[in-house]
Amino acid sequence: MKSFLVLLVSFVVSLVTGLKCKPTLELSIKWNVDCSALNLSSAPLPELFHPVVVLNLSHNLFTHLENSHFSNWTEIIILDLSFNNIQNIDEHSFSGLTNLNELNLKHNKIEVLSTNITNHLPKLKILNLSSNKLKIIKDGVFQSVPQLLNLFLENNIDLGKTEENYINLNKSLKQGLYTLNISNISLAELPKSFFNCTNYLISLSIAHNPLKNIEELPSSLRYLNISGTLIESLPSGIFLKSDTLQKLSLEQMPLLRQIKANAFLGLYRLEELNIKDCPKLNFISENAFGSSIPKLQRVTLANTALTTLPKTFEPLFNKVNHLDLQGNPWICDGQISWISHINISSNLLDNLRCEDPPTARGITVVHYFQPRSLHPHSSLLRAAVVLALVAVLVGGVVGIIRRSAKQKTKAYCHLENIGLQDTSNKIPPLSEI
């Protein structure tokens, strides 16, 4: 049996050598086939690898998917058509793909999400249409994919300009969608009924949209990304109904200025909070976290305009495993001295520096507030200072002694000279003797 499989593999590989696809034999004689970046404009013959469970046709030259394009690939579970130039998809292009779980069409030029894409895919669970040119979502497009769980529509900048699209998206949410990414679609306002009857949505990204406020969010969320929005203030209780939230991202928010009291109230299951690259954020209320966030493990509060933090954060920040406070213009006074006592990883200390007072500018916060007795080089410095003082004292004493001795020597010489002169006056000249 083994020899037969070896011969079979050798035969199939020899057939596809000219095509340059890369087949990989899986268990039960099923193939994963990589035909990416081969300048293909149509699918290879299915007879060459049968049955195929994964087919990668990314980075090719597809522009038009014709009817029954994949009709013979009935065993495919994952189909990757990303990074092509697909503009048109016929009504029965995906006919026959009755076992398909994942369809990747990102980075193409598709303008309409219609039933031409979703028809004939009863087991589809993941649909990726990010970075296309989508403008319209047709009615009924999600009815033929009742098992759809993950939908990625980010970076379709015209998609959020039509109200009808939200109505049709809401239908997919009602069917039980788990993940929805609608980042960067020019979404200016969330319709009030957009999340009605949404009981299963776990992950939501509405990042990089011109949203100025968020009034209502699904209570089932675990992961929320509102980075890059135009929100200026996080009001009290904004996440109060999202008590299952585990990760919250607020990054690159150009207008965010303040986080008010109880803004994070009720986030009892929050594990990770990312607030980063918000250049105008200069105030966080001392009661922003409410009473307690017992499961918080990772906090990033970096590259903002914050100059100080209330001491009420100390008990909370002391419990986290990862704390990043770098890139903020800290005023190193007594109000933030508590930061130097928190256990922060050494790799997150380099850019945690004082901005004010001027004498402290550029010094790390930890070193600035560290007692001199605990400074790693303090004993050496003290020893050097003591030795220098001793040297100065000894030098001074030696100098005094030398000056005193010199003065005495001069005095003796002077007296001796005087004595010699007196003696010479008393001795008569030789001529008189």
Cα-based radius of gyration, to the nearest Å: 39 Å
Strand composition percent? 15-25%
Secondary-structure class: alpha/beta
- Return the string of H and E elements: HEEEEEEEEHEEEHEEEEEEEEEHEEEHH
| CATH topology assignment of the largest domain | Leucine-rich repeat, LRR (right-handed beta-alpha superhelix)
**How would you sum up the major sheet?**
14 strands, mixed
Shape call: elongated
Which whole number gives the mean pLDDT?
85
- Going by CATH, the architecture of the largest domain would be Alpha-Beta Horseshoe
Taking the alpha carbons of the first and last residues, their distance comes to: 149 Å
CATH top level assignment of the largest domain: Alpha Beta
Query: How would you write the strand order of the largest sheet?
Result: 1-2-3-5-7-9-11-12-13-14-16-18-20-21
Low-confidence stretches: 1-17, 372-379, 420-433
What is the count of β-strands?
23
The CATH superfamily of the largest domain bears the name: Ribonuclease Inhibitor
Residue share in helices?
10-25%
| Total helical segments | 6
Count of discrete domains: 2
What does this structure look like?
It is a single chain. Helix 3 links the parallel strand 11 (150-152) and strand 12. Mean pLDDT is 85; it is low at 1-17, 372-379 and 420-433. The chain has 433 residues and is α/β, with parallel strands linked by helices. The chain contains six helices and 23 strands. It has helices at 2-16, 115-118, 163-174, 314-319, 365-369, 378-426, and strands at residues 22-26, 30-34, 52-56, 64-65, 78-80, 88-89, 102-104, 112-113, 126-128, 136-137, 150-152, 179-181, 203-205, 223-225, 233-234, 247-251, 258-259, 272-278, 283-284, 298-304, 322-324, 330-331, 354-356. It folds into two domains: 10-210, Ribonuclease Inhibitor (Leucine-rich repeat, LRR (right-handed beta-alpha superhelix)); 239-371, Ribonuclease Inhibitor (Leucine-rich repeat, LRR (right-handed beta-alpha superhelix), Alpha-Beta Horseshoe), CATH 3.80.10. The longest helix has 49 residues, at 378-426. Helix content is 21%, strand content 18%. A 14-stranded mixed sheet has the order 1-2-3-5-7-9-11-12-13-14-16-18-20-21, with helices on one face. The chain has a three-stranded parallel sheet with strand order 15-17-19, with no helix packed on it. A two-stranded parallel sheet has the order 4-6.
